[in-house]
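Whether sequence alone determines local backbone shape is best considered at the level of individual chains. The sequence in question and its structure tokens are set out directly beneath this paragraph.

===
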Amino acid sequence: MSFAAPFTGSWTPCRTLSADLAGHRGDGVLTDLQKAFATRNSTLWVVGLVLAGYAVLEAVEAVGLWRGRRWAEYLTLVATAILLVPEIYELSRRITATRIIALIINVAVVVYLLIAKRLFGLRGGGRALAAEREHDNGWGSVERVFPGAPAVQGRNDEGTDS
């Protein structure tokens, strides 16, 4: 018995809904659901293990970013770049505007991570990032934000007592 069988009765809106969901070339929602329910048990285990591995990767990444670790920024790049693989695969199967836009957005995110986080030595690498963070800490950074404000008495530009 087909998954769409309950929707193919004599009532016209149900037949139309069934045809819309099934798609004109057999690639609609109902076809995908039929494939999902027909999947072998071993395939489900593999998919589950891959998803569990990705969840562990994301958890480790989250803890590393929370603690401000540099390796976590690299892990973020890897986790984001991994998602490009299924998108490229889907584009190889069928090219649509949505898939192209999604790929462009994700490539832009990867490029942004490379440049903004100064990964792999770009824009001076980790040393330049540490110098930028050091420059943005202390009273000097507060005074640079409010240039018209009077200087804090007894403090130099590094934020230590003079």
About this structure: The chain has a mean pLDDT of 78. Residues 1-38 form one domain. The longest helix spans residues 41-66. The chain is about 65% helix and 0% strand.
